[in-house]
Amino acid sequence: MTPGRLTFFALVLLLGLASRAAAEPAPTFRIRILAARDYRAETLRYRQQLERLVAALNHRTSSPQVRFDLVEIRPWDRLSAQASLGELVEDLEKREPGADVDWVVGIASAVPLVPTNNIGKARLFGKHFVLRSAAFHHYSPTLVFLHEWAHTLGAVHVTEAGSLMLPSYDVRAQALDPVNALVVATVLRARQAGTPPDKLLASLRAILRDRGPPWPEYLREVAPLLSRRAEAPPPCRDRARERAIDELSPVRKPAGKGAP
Hints:
The protein is α/β, with parallel strands linked by helices. The chain is built from nine helices and five strands, in the order H-E-H-H-E-H-E-E-E-H-H-H-H-H. Strand 4 and strand 5 (128-132) form a beta hairpin.
């Protein structure tokens, strides 16, 4: 085969691989939403608003590119305006374990004058998180949703400009920073495979050990948290979703110290 024909066939192969990668669907996860009693009372057509939130999440093109299948919107018999977000997360976990879904999301009443860093709360490495209603505040519920969702997958606050994981809400923060994206993809793969917590911790150490702050402190904090989890989640061998999860983060472990 001549060099010219070889180049032509290589180009065809690369274009074919690129088009197949582009056609690969985003991983889809099942969610159940529980709407607090006072949120339902203050929000006109709340079901339609929550359905629009999920539709907006599914049309995003920034990282993380994931999709959510809204299994159910269920009333949450809880007055939420005066409760702390931590209390609401604990209540949500007790009321709805969510054995048949990937995540359970609680929607709480909006609180006037609430600080912008107090509009969502998640259980690190859990499957429950709570969002305050956007009724009295001008922020994007899709960004807050993804911020708290990423916390359940091990993501932490960083100061990198434009990161979805900034500690306070910023409308310009639209995508995960590369290292948090790598953490999220690693934890997602572990959940998909039913990886035991000790092996997940080893994977996190392998990808984060040469990183600068805040990652050394992060590893020290998550080690006891993961060690207290005696059992791995049951595996969910969905091959299409596994392939889609693998495409979430192309970032690889850095060669040396001081990488971003």
